[in-house]
Amino acid sequence: MTESETHTDVVSQTPVVETVGPADVRSPRRQVIAIAVVAFLVLGVGLLVGFTRASSQSSSAWVKLATPIEMPEVVLTDTDGRPYDLRDQTAGQVTLLYFGYLNCPDACPIHMAVLGATFDQLEPDVRAQLNVVFVTTDPERDGPDDLREFLDRFDPDFVGLTGSQAELREAQVAAGVPVAVAEPADPDGDYLVGHATQVLVFDTDGIARSVYPFGVRQSDWVADLSKLVDT
Prior knowledge:
The protein is an alpha+beta fold and 231 residues long. It has seven helices and ten strands. It is 36% helix and 20% strand. The strands form two sheets. It has an eight-stranded mixed sheet with strand order 1-10-9-4-5-6-2-3. A two-stranded antiparallel ribbon has the order 7-8. A hairpin with a 4-residue loop joins strand 2 and strand 3 (83-85).
């Protein structure tokens, strides 16, 4: 199974995959497979959305959430090792929230690269009103220094957050995305993590009403982000 098969783009609040005990060693793989099934279904929805957008010549790449989501009220840890109150420290700014991990071979680096290139094209007054927050779903391997090194490749202002498994689970549940599930490690200790790949967009009031699925074009990001902030 490839990493891309484990990703999900979910455009509404989704039932959370429950954690199971270590006795059932096959459960993580079944959970990742379940996430993959959802991914295929959502891929069809994404193609339909793309076709609809093309037909209507709409300039917006976002997908409206069925139920708006409040910014998670959680305190995580930033790349300097300091507490980061997600709701408090993003208040008053448009915030792009993404859950991923550093060993991801496709969606995560692609998302960050596209956003980094997008931010390079934005006017300074637009950039100043935007946050990008990357929350790891693999805290065992993604330390604060690793997160900082990864995000600096794309934009040094991007925020990287980690925490305990319980804290990260709470953040994902509050954000309305499926809780990430790791596959059993291979003999070399490597493993993939099934995780949501949509970017949640929180307005200045701390409410997300839309998400951006994986694969949004840079030109669409540039056009949309310029409209989301007050200029």
